Amino acid sequence: MAKRQITGQGEVKSPEPMKSVERQFAEAIQYMLDQMQKRWRSQALGGLQKSTVEKFTDAQTGNFAKVYLAVAGKVRRKLLKQFDDDRLEELAKKFTGKVDRRNREEFYKRVESNIGISRKELEATEGLTYQINAYSLETFQWIKKLRDETLQGWTSQTLRLMAEGKGLPEILSQFDDMVEKRKGHAKMVARTQISTFNSLVSKARAQNLGIEKAIWVTAKDERVRGNPSGKYPNAKPSHHWADGKEFVLSEGLTFPSGKTLLPGVDYACRCTYRMIIPSADEE
Question: How far is 37 from 150, CA to CA, in rounded Å?
Answer without folding.
Answer: 9
